[in-house]
């Protein structure tokens, strides 16, 4: 472990992976570290899967700037790397007079944030666009650029591209202490030390802990739990836009949105909790969402529920990101990214690269850079099946995932080594049957790469 | 690529196999059966208990032997079968798009029999809150893990549900030396035969918690504990590492729903007449997609009935000319199958209707009526939820061709 890295990025969530990805374009030695056994396995895996334009961010905050920029960059990247996304546009819906009065202010705010093309909608127009919405709508505002996106692919694509371009990935590596010797950081891990000239703290829920290890006491992360319900794909026809509520100070409120996989998602709730590991759903949260779903889109009550989950947003006492660059200490903190990490990720990464350049880190662009593309869906590219029949051999019927795609995910540069990892890469087991038909087949595929079913299912020793 | 057949059967479980076999037996050569699994046979393949085959084949077998027997029957009838072929969507009104190792195909057919069966509602669909650890299964997933992967799943389990299939799950768990701590049902009693209940209480000493719901799951990586809430308001925690959701069937009704075929609110499957025709001309249905979940034998008998209708249809007798008169049930009845009548000349499978109740009913008279006119009354000494009750069908000759038929207490 004698390698001296130029930059150590702590946290392989969507933000950390984006930073490592951008750094991998230059001749630097970068290491991407995460305590979990996979990339994007923390806060990044459970969100509303929306690529925001940043129209409703508080103008002139860093968050507003970076979400706006990140939105443009991620769309570009998604097109190139094959990350599924769809520009559905969003409708802000006013359900009462007070909300109706707020619409012009939101419009103004959007303009301040550089988001244009918004349109006021009469109730008639709203019902024409979304005939299944519940009764009582007073008006709406159409935000054209808002998109739905696959929430799992961005961190995986960013990190994979970084790895194939020379970034060292250290998973299952928890940083337990930070010390500095002769201007070199020593990151203490369980079994060894990682040495680096610079440290980027993108540790999400634990960014405050790392920040304290470096010697600051600037903020505290309070996990804000958001619960979500995903409805069956048969509900997709009920909706064509993202339906946003009028945001309040606490949260953006409960939205209804189609997903790129063809489901309908309702959520999130917003509840501050103490435990950074407690991503459990609650009776209260699910009942609240169920009722909300029935008010917003009454026909949903007749559809099946495919999944429920909860995610933890890294909220702090501040209203803005905790993005602190310290050129003296060679330390950058990217904390308190709350709920906009996915949208802002590439914006944040670009911002940091600029900072590095200004701070005198010698960043020389690589002559050869390998672009990474996510595996393509055989159902859309039939020639794949003629090349390898396994691409036509479905294992997960609900989501249409073939044996070939599962094999690819198990043998990727960053391979899936857990059911959850495979789920995020391929969507297998995420569908309506939740494993009724395919769980045993999926688990037996893992035995081919040396992962036993009992360890996959965390079976108690027998 | 595009292919054309006279009849296309979707699903190689008991209903699909018997439908295709019947079509073959009567010499309709151009029949194709597609099955998405690599093997024919459907769910019975991993139901390792006896009780299959009595009603349709007059012999008693275990699930796997029943599946093998039906597959052999089909092979002898020389019906073309494509396994590992999944119907993904419709391509017009009488054709389906499929995906298989051969690529993407469009199969069109004059008659289509939907026999895609049903599945159990998983934890998420039951909205059970809590953490999301490993160790939560449905009976389907459990039995495949046990009998196909030969994988022991845990040490202590809680079974949600107390209908026939729940006891099948219990049997599978106990056989793999997983102790079942309790069965939990929202209803006031179990819903199986007294002999099964007696066996579980004496042999395995499994308590059945009635009027109770699973209200929370705890555990970080693996299930550690569950919370059970009783209708009295009392709450109880049980330590376990495995939770099995059983029963609570939902038909695999995606194909008919994508085609906007009329659905029945009770069964949640397509509405079918007594000849098992759906609302769309040329599309038939059979098996547990219509009545989740009856035993394999009943599904197989549906298959025969649907095949008879297909043969008539191909010979030019179009049953869709007559209007379908819906049959509706009134609570506490849950559903009736078949749930429409087009022609009194069409007799339902086995010459009776299947009726299900939502709650336990004692000494009830069921009346079948059209407006004020009572067509038929039938007395049941007891009706148990999640169990079939058979209603004779001779009254269908007395219906008028206008008004909906209502089945109520």
Description:
The complex is a heterodimer of chains A (462) and B (409). By secondary structure, chain A is α+β, with helices and mostly antiparallel strands. Chain A contains 13 helices and 22 strands. In chain A, strands 1, 2, 9, 10, 11, 12, 19 and 20 form an 8-stranded mixed β-sheet that branches. In chain A, strands 13, 15, 16, 17 and 18 form a 5-stranded antiparallel β-sheet that branches. In chain A, strands 6-7-5-14 form a 4-stranded mixed β-sheet. In chain A, a hairpin with a 4-residue loop joins β11 and β12. In chain A, α1 runs parallel beside α5, α1 packs parallel to α8 and α2 (62-81) packs across α8. Chain A is globular and about 65 Å long. Chain A starts with a strand and ends in a 6-residue tail after the last helix. Chain B has 409 residues and is of the alpha/beta class. Helix content of chain B is 21%, strand content 34%. Chain B has helices at 14-25, 54-57, 63-76, 139-147, 164-175, 194-204, 254-258, 296-314; strands spanning 2-10, 31-34, 50-52, 61-62, 80-82, 86-90, 95-100, 103-114, 118-120, 136-138, 156-160, 179-184, 208-209, 212-218, 225-230, 235-239, 242-245, 249-251, 283-285, 325-329, 333-337, 340-341, 352-357, 361-370, 373-383, 389-392, 405-408. In chain B, strands 1, 2, 5, 6, 7, 8 and 19 form a 7-stranded mixed β-sheet that branches. The radius of gyration of chain B is 22 Å and the shape is globular. The model of chain B has no long low-confidence stretch (mean pLDDT 93). At the A-B interface, α7, β18, α12 and α13 of A face α4, β14 and α7 of B.
């Amino acid at each position: 472990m004698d390698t001296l890295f130029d930059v150590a990025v702590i946290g392989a969530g969507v933000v950390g992976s984006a930073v490592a990805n951008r750094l991998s374009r230059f001749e630097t030695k970068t290491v991407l570290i995460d305590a979990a056994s996979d990339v994007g396995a923390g806060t990044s895996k459970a969100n509303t899967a929306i690529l925001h334009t940043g129209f409703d961010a508080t103008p002139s905050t860093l968050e507003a700037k970076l979400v706006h920029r990140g939105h443009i960059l991620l769309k570009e990247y998604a097109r190139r790397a094959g990350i599924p996304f769809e520009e559905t546009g969003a409708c802000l819906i006013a359900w009462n007079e007070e909300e109706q009065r707020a619409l012009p202010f939101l419009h103004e705010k959007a303009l301040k944030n550089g988001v244009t093309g918004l349109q006021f909608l009469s109730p008639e127009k709203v019902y024409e666009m979304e005939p299944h919405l519940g009764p009582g709508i007073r008006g709406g505002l159409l935000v054209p650029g808002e998109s739905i996106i696959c929430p799992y692919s961005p961190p995986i694509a960013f990190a994979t591209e970084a790895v194939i371009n020379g970034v060292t990935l250290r998973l299952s590596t928890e940083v337990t202490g930070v010390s500095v010797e002769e201007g070199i950081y020593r990151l203490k891990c369980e079994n060894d030390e990682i040495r680096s000239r610079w440290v980027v703290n993108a540790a999400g829920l634990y960014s405050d802990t790392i920040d304290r290890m470096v010697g600051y006491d600037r903020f505290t992360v309070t996990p804000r739990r958001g619960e979500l319900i995903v409805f069956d794909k048969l509900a997709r026809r009920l909706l064509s836009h993202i339906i946003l509520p009028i945001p309040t100070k606490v949260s953006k409120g409960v939205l209804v949105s189609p997903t790129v996989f063809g489901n309908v998602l309702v959520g999130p709730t917003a509840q501050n909790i103490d435990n950074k590991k407690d991503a459990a759903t609650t009776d209260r949260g699910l009942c609240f969402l169920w009722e909300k779903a029935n008010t917003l889109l009454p026909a949903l009550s007749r559809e099946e529920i495919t999944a429920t989950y909860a995610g933890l947003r890294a909220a702090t006492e501040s209203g803005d990101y905790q993005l602190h660059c310290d050129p003296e200490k060679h330390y950058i903190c990217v904390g308190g990214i709350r709920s906009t990490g996915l949208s802002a990720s590439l914006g944040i990464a670009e911002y940091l690269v600029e900072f590095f350049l200004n701070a005198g880190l010698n960043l020389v662009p690589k002559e050869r850079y390998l672009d990474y593309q996510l595996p393509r869906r055989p159902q859309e590219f039939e020639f794949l099946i003629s090349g390898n029949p396994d691409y036509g051999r479905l294992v997960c019927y609900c989501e249409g995932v073939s044996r070939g795609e599962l094999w690819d995910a198990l043998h990727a540069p960053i391979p899936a080594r857990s059911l959850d990892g495979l789920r995020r890469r391929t969507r297998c087991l995420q569908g309506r049957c939740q494993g009724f038909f395919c769980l045993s087949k999926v688990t037996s595929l893992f035995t081919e790469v040396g992962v036993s079913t009992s360890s996959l299912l965390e079976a108690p020793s027998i | 690529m595009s292919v054309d057949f006279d009849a296309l059967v979707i699903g190689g479980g008991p209903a699909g196999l018997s439908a295709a076999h019947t079509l073959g037996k009567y010499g309709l050569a151009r029949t194709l059966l597609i099955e998405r699994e690599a093997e024919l046979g459907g769910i019975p393949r991993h139901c390792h208990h006896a009780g299959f085959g009595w009603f349709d084949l007059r012999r008693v077998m275990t699930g796997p032997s029943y599946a093998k027997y039906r597959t052999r029957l089909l092979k002898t009838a020389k019906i073309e079968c494509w396994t590992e072929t999944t119907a993904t969507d419709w391509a017009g009104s009488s054709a389906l798009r499929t995906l298989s190792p051969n690529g993407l195909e469009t199969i069109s057919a004059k008659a289509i029999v939907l026999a895609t069966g049903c599945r159990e509602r998983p934890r998420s669909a039951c909205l059970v809150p809590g953490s999301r650890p490993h160790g939560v299964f449905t009976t389907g997933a459990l039995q495949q893990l046990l009998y196909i992967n030969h994988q022991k799943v845990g040490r202590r389990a809680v079974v949600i549900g107390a209908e026939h299939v729940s006891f099948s799950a219990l049997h599978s768990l106990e056989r793999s030396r997983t102790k079942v701590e309790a069965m939990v049902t929202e209803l006031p009693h179990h819903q199986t035969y007294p002999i099964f209940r007696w066996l579980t209480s004496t042999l395995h000493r499994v308590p059945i918690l009635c009027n109770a719901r699973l209200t929370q799951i705890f555990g970080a990586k693996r299930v550690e504990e569950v919370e059970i809430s009783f209708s009295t308001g009392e709450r109880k925690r049980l330590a376990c590492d495995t939770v099995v959701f059983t029963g609570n069937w939902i038909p695999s009704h995606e194909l008919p729903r994508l085609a906007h075929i009329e659905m029945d609110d009770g069964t949640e499957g397509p509405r079918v007449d007594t000849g098992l025709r759906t609302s769309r001309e040329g599309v038939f249905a059979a098996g547990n997609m219509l009545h989740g979940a009856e035993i394999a034998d009943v599904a197989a008998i549906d298959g025969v009935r649907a095949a008879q209708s297909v043969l008539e249809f191909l010979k030019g007798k179009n049953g869709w000319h007559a209007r379908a008169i819906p049959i509706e049930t009134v609570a506490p009845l849950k559903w009736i199958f078949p749930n429409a009548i087009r022609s009194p000349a069409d007799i339902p499978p086995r010459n009776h209707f299947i009726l299900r109740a939502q709650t336990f009913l004692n000494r009830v008279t069921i009346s079948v009526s059209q407006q004020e006119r009572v067509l038929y009354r039938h007395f049941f000494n007891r009706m148990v939820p999640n169990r079939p009750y058979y209603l004779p069908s001779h009254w269908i000759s007395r219906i008028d061709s206008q008004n909906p038929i209502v089945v109520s207490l």
